[in-house]
């Protein structure tokens, strides 16, 4: 798979990664070579093979419905980039 | 040209667990911002989700209630998108294998007919936080208290053909989740939210038109208005030679219109994949059986039973079973009223409802208990008091004066059935109103009511209405 | 008492319990070594001398009082900077978390704290554990103590170098595709990646959730077993943590190897990339095990070569999602004066992440995106099943599998940075183990031109005690693991 400049821009946007114009050709070449490399696995015969998303096929753990957490807002927001009135601040959200 | 709307709804019901779906933080509504957002809800580096068993039980209960298959093994997936109120950059949801499969509900239409609406699926997921748009120096504020609150997303088939049907379906689901005590149904607080998929087609056309999704319309009234607006808009577009674009639209209640939020081209590529932090949710037969065991009688079954057992109309039975608490109240009242089903229904739907409504109280918060109301119905049935006096007794009970017998005794409201006393009052009224008497006797029948009123007033309303009528007709006769 | 650095964890622990010396003395000695030697290695991102001495003092009091003394109370260690440590910077080797003071402890951190152990500081690592050479760290490369021009391996390169140079008695690592075993091999130490689910991932900053596993890096197998006893255990806060009885990983150390069937995968020894000197050292180690009573069987892992392609879809896919939380909103790096929301996200992430992290996020994003999911992600999950099946079949014939950990010894800093795919190939022998969720370990088994060679032992699920037994018996018969790089002797 060979990725174009546009492909790289589209992926970077989807992943919310700013990459500069001069970085794009490098990324395009590297990503293309990685994709070409991983495409080796396309040769594997996997018809009828069940996908394995996880090492173990055990049921997920469940917890009881109990409130165990306390208000730690001050500690949590002491490491936040921008807060006011207990809220995390971000550039205006437009819907 | 005749157009047919095609509507499907996606309802998000917040499950009323105490703690969040993947963390031990409280789900209580209305706390100070970010005081109920723990490290897991905040998506701190390294944190992991652990599933709340109660949320699973609630989803199973819903599945059983709509006759759906509960998946023995369902999978949590990540829905990836960036948004400031989505702390991890993905929402944990269910995609390919939801916990609740295909089911259906029956809705009651205004004309009394019943229509079956398919439910495609219902799945568990986590709610996002909220963006507050008050101006913080041109910035928005993010409150993550709601982040991680369990949601059941209930997706219907495109089975509805009018806004009215959509509302009836929405109300049916609303009643159901409240019956099951899995969602408080509070739409102001956002516990029960709705997105509508709307398209139109020429009547008879087997193919659906292009649909638009209307996001987050959060009252029954707005859903109806938004759908009706959208139907009209789409018809206008097509009739003026245009084409409906598949897009997401936002309803603006102030302008009563929908507007474009994002087009199909801008649609997110959510990159769903199985959440590697969570293993499959396994629901075994024992768990399903336990949940089934705990299910209450469901609204539809109860409605039909009310019609059969208490000889109620479909309408009355529908109103009385719309809420589990109301239905419980009604049944307790009937039990206390020796089975006077219809009379009890009139009182619950009439005076009681009016008083509750006036004071904005919930049925569970009524100062008149089912025992008191049942006793009142008994006193009407055994003619101790008339219906009119009963209204007065009800009000006194409402105001804290105790059970009806005490109220009747204290205020001397017992019905007078002594013929002599009634005849005496009639004679006095006839003597005091010779002119009206003459008019009546010369054929002005309408004045009968005037005499009834006068006599009733003289007797402070306590005369037996049947006796009064009979005696008066006799005396007034020329 | 200045020879603490030549002592094993077991020896230090015994001395502390016998009150031959105090934890403060031991701790001070290692802090001194860090201060004087780490300038050449860059193995620590953060050193915490005050906290360490306070913890050592508390440990001494605990030992003095004779209360709640655990096997390793008072033993110092270095913690990979991927484990959250409350009140201490947890950078994950990234500019994104350069100033991130974790607000909570990872479960593993808490286990060490509860055991009264002494954290010396946080070790350098590839950014978000993505790398095989420790060159992707925002805090600069780590130098291999055996040759400072060479890489220590990665991603747990700082931990490996610190233990190899004996500036910490042991260290923690995490292993997603070889990140404990490969640096252990390249630095000549012992490292074990336990079975997936044995050690809690709670508070261990996620790279690829279905592959990540924490484990100890130490000088001896015995030390690794003792540390694993503290690290492992069921954690109700990790849904993927396995609910099993607590076990003593040291229980089989002294068992003889008689009757042990050692599987030798034919695919591991025929590949072009294998340095013949590494192959020879591994064969010599196998012969040593035979002399200890084991027998060798040839096994086959036919899908081995598909493990790297499958891994470089699965791991990036999971990482692309795991790293979405770093958005500049609640913690971590935020770009200066964002124009709007999109700019906040794109620039915070664009400036906060390094090139390798970006590459993997983009590969993962692509592999999961509409139209490519089936061809890449789903196919990788199916290949993963094939790889798992290969191991299941092989383990019908043998008790452990033996092979090289890395195809080569440590390479030069800068040698492979321009070509990601070449770099990825250095994990050829380790990656399949993560895909299958198996335990794997690396122990020193020789030298080539003065550089350590690592021997990999792969076990069945939850068979760590058996692997540690094999490693310990081998180490009783050999002395490769006791060698120290001269400048750090």
Radius of gyration of chain B: 29 Å
Which pair of protein chains has the largest interface, and what are the residue counts? A-C, 51 and 69 residues
Could you give a short account of the major beta sheet of chain B?
Answer: 8 strands, mixed
Q: Strand order, biggest sheet of chain C?
A: 4-6-5-10-11-9-7-8
Using the coordinates above, name the CATH class of the domain at 4-247 and 482-488 in chain C: Alpha Beta
Q: What oligomeric state is this?
A: heterotrimer
- Which regions of chain C are unreliable across 5 or more consecutive residues at pLDDT < 50? none
Strand order of the largest sheet of chain B: 6-7-10-1-11-12-13-14
Shape of chain B: elongated
Class from helix and strand fractions of chain C: alpha/beta
| Main sheet properties of chain C | 8 strands, mixed
N-to-C series of helices and strands of chain C = HHEHEHEHEHEEHEHHEHHHHEHHEEH
Give the N-terminus to C-terminus distance of chain C in angstroms: 15 Å
What is the CATH superfamily classification of the domain at 4-247 and 482-488 in chain C? Amidase signature (AS) domain
Strand content of chain C: 5-15%
Extract low-pLDDT stretches of chain B: none
Number of helices of chain B: 15
Shape of chain C: globular
User: How many runs of DSSP E, i.e. beta strands of chain B?
Assistant: 16
**Radius of gyration of chain C from CA coordinates:** 21 Å
What does this structure look like?
The complex is a heterotrimer of chains A (95), B (478) and C (489). Helix content of chain A is 32%, strand content 9%. Chain A has a domain at 5-42: Histone, subunit A (Orthogonal Bundle), CATH 1.10.20. Chain A has 95 residues and is α+β, with helices and mostly antiparallel strands. Chain A contains three helices and three strands; from the N terminus they run ααβαββ. Chain A starts with a helix and ends with a strand. Chain B contains 15 helices and 16 strands. The longest helix of chain B has 20 residues, at 220-239. With 478 residues, chain B is an alpha+beta fold. Chain B has helices spanning 53-65, 163-179, 220-239, 285-294, 299-310, 314-320, 324-336, 341-359, 370-381, 387-398, 404-411, 419-432, 434-441, 448-458, 465-476, and strands at 3-14, 51-52, 73-74, 76-80, 90-94, 103-108, 114-126, 130-136, 139-143, 150-156, 192-202, 212-215, 247-252, 257-263, 273-274, 281-282. In chain B, helix 3 (220-239) links the parallel strand 12 (212-215) and strand 13 (247-252). In chain B, helix 7 crosses helix 8 (341-359). Among the domains of chain C are: 4-247 and 482-488, Amidase signature (AS) enzymes; 305-382, no CATH class. Chain C is 38% helix and 13% strand. Chain C contains 16 helices and eleven strands. In chain C, the strands form two sheets. Chain C has an eight-stranded mixed beta sheet with strand order 4-6-5-10-11-9-7-8. In chain C, strands 1-3-2 form a three-stranded mixed beta sheet, with helices on both faces. In chain C, helix 4 links the parallel strand 2 (76-80) and strand 3. Chain C is globular and about 60 Å long. The two termini of chain C are 15 Å apart. The model of chain C has no long low-confidence stretch (mean pLDDT 97). The chains are: A alpha+beta (95), B alpha+beta (478), C alpha/beta (489). The interface between A and B is large, with 35 and 51 residues. Strand 3 of chain A pairs antiparallel with strand 9 (139-143) of chain B, so a sheet runs across the interface.
């Amino acid at each position: 798979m060979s990725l174009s400049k546009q492909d790289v821009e589209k992926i970077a946007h989807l992943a919310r990664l700013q990459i500069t114009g001069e970085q794009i050709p490098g990324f395009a070449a590297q990503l293309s070579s990685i994709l070409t490399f991983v495409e080796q696995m396309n040769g594997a015969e996997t018809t009828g093979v069940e996908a394995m998303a996880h090492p173990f096929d055990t049921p997920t753990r469940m917890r009881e419905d109990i409130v165990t957490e306390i208000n730690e807002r001050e500690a949590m927001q002491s490491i936040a980039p921008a807060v006011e009135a207990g809220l995390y601040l971000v550039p205006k959200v437009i819907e | 040209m005749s157009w047919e709307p095609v509507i499907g709804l996606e309802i998000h019901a917040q499950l009323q667990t105490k703690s969040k779906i993947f963390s031990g933080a409280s789900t209580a509504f209305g706390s100070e911002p970010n005081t109920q957002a723990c490290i897991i809800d905040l998506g701190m580096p390294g944190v992991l989700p652990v599933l709340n068993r109660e949320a699973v039980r609630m989803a199973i209960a819903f599945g059983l209630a709509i006759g759906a298959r509960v998946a023995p093994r369902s999978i949590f997936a990540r829905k990836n998108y960036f948004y400031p109120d989505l702390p991890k950059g993905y929402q944990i949801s269910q995609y390919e294998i939801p916990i609740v499969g295909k089911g259906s509900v029956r809705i009651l239409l205004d004309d009394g007919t019943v229509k079956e609406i398919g439910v495609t699926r219902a799945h568990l997921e986590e709610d996002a936080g909220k963006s507050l748009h008050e101006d913080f120096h041109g910035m928005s504020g993010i409150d993550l208290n709601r982040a991680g609150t369990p949601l059941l997303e209930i997706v219907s088939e495109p089975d509805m053909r009018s806004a009215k049907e959509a509302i009836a379906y929405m109300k049916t689901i609303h009643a159901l989740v409240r019956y099951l005590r899995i969602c408080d149904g509070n739409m102001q607080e956002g516990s029960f939210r709705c997105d509508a998929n709307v398209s139109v087609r020429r009547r008879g056309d087997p193919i659906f038109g292009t649909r638009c999704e209307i996001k987050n319309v959060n009252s029954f009234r707005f859903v109806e208005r938004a759908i009706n607006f959208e139907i009209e808009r789409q018809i206008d577009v097509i009739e003026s030679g245009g084409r409906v674009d598949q897009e997401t639209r936002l309803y603006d209640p102030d302008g009563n219109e929908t507007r474009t939020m994002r087009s199909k081209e801008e649609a997110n590529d959510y990159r769903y994949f199985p959440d590697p932090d969570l293993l499959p949710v396994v629901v075994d037969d024992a768990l399903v059986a336990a949940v089934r065991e705990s299910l209450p009688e469901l609204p539809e079954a109860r409605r039909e039973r009310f019609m059969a057992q208490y000889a109620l109309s479909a309408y009355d039975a529908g109103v009385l079973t719309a809420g589990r608490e109301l239905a419980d109240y009604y049944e307790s009242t009937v039990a206390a009223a020796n089975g006077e089903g219809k009379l009890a229904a009139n009182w619950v739907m009439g005076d009681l409802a009016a008083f509750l409504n006036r004071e904005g109280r919930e049925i569970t918060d009524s100062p008149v208990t089912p025992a008191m109301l049942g006793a009142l119905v008994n006193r009407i049935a055994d003619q101790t008091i008339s219906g009119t006096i009963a209204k007065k007794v009800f009000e006194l009970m409402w105001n804290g004066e105790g059970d009806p017998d005490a109220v009747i005794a204290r205020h001397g409201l017992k019905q007078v059935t002594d013929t002599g006393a009634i005849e005496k009052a009639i004679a006095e009224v006839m003597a005091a109103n010779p002119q009206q008497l003459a008019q009546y006797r010369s054929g002005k029948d309408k004045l009968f009511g005037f005499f009834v009123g006068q006599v009733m007033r003289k007797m402070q309303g306590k005369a037996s209405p049947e006796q009064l009528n009979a005696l008066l007709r006799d005396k007034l006769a020329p | 008492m200045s020879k603490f650095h030549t002592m094993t964890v077991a020896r230090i622990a015994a001395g502390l319990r016998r009150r031959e010396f105090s934890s403060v003395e031991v701790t001070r000695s290692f802090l001194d070594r860090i201060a004087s030697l780490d300038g050449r290695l860059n193995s620590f991102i953060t050193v915490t001398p005050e906290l360490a001495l306070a913890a050592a003092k508390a440990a001494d009091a605990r030992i003095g009082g004779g209360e709640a003394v655990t096997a390793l109370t008072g033993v110092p260690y270095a913690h990979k900077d991927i484990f959250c440590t409350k009140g201490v910077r947890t950078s994950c080797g990234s500019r994104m978390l350069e100033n991130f003071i974790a607000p909570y402890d990872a479960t593993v951190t808490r286990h060490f704290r509860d055991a009264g152990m002494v954290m010396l500081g946080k070790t350098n690592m590839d950014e978000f554990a993505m790398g095989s050479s420790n060159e992707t760290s925002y805090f600069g490369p780590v130098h291999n103590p055996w040759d400072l021009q060479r890489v220590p391996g990665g991603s747990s390169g700082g931990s490996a170098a610190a233990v190899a140079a004996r500036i910490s008695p042991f260290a923690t690592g995490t292993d997603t595709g070889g990140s404990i075993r490969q640096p252990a091999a390249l630095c000549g130490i012992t490292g074990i990646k336990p079975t997936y689910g044995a050690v809690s991932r709670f508070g261990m900053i996620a790279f690829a959730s279905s592959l990540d596993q924490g484990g100890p890096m130490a000088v001896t197998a015995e030390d690794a077993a003792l540390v694993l006893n503290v690290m492992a255990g069921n954690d109700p806060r990790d849904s993927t943590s396995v609910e099993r009885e607590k076990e003593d990983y040291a229980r089989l150390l002294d068992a003889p190897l008689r009757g042990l069937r050692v599987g030798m995968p034919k695919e591991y020894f025929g590949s072009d990339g294998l340095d013949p000197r590494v192959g020879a050292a591994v064969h010599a180690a196998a012969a040593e095990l035979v002399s200890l009573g084991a027998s060798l069987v040839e096994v086959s892992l036919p899908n081995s070569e598909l493990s790297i392609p499958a891994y470089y879809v699965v791991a990036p896919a999971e990482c692309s999602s795991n790293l979405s939380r770093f958005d500049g909103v609640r913690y971590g790096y935020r770009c200066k004066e964002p124009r709007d929301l999109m700019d906040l996200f794109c620039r915070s992430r664009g400036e906060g992440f390094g090139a390798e992290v970006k590459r993997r996020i983009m590969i993962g994003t692509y592999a999961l995106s509409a139209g490519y999911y089936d061809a890449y992600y789903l196919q990788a999950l199916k290949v993963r099943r094939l790889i798992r099946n290969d191991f299941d079949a092989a383990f019908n014939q043998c008790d452990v599998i033996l092979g090289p950990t890395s195809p080569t010894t440590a390479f030069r800093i800068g040698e492979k940075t321009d070509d990601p795919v070449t770099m990825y190939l250095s994990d050829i022998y380790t990656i399949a183990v993560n895909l299958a969720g198996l335990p794997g370990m690396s122990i020193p088994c020789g030298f080539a031109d003065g550089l350590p060679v690592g021997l990999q032992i792969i076990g069945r699920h939850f068979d760590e005690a058996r692997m540690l037994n094999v490693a310990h018996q081998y180490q009783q018969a050999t002395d490769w693991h006791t060698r120290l790089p001269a400048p750090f002797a």
